[in-house]
Predict the structure.
Amino acid sequence: MSVSSQLTPDAQLDLRGTPCPINFVRTKLRLQQIQAGELLEVWLDAGEPIEQVPDSLKMAGYQIEQITDCSGYFSLLVRRPVNDS
């Protein structure tokens, strides 16, 4: 018996090749476009992007659900808070 913990994103954003802090700004703008409680999947490069963006999003009040190493880039699942204004 296996329980699926698969999280299905409501939207996706490919930011591979996008430098910091532009990738954080674009992620935040995209999160403001989705409904509260929805999940955004963001593709980020290794190095500074995956090191900086998740922490910056947490400080901004967003919930990081999952980070997956996809061989060459990272998939970041971030949820817009329900109590977000």
Notes: The chain has a mean pLDDT of 92. The chain has one domain: 11-79. The domain at 11-79 is CATH 3.30.110.40 (Translation Initiation Factor IF3). The CA atoms of residues 5 and 66 lie 11 Å apart.
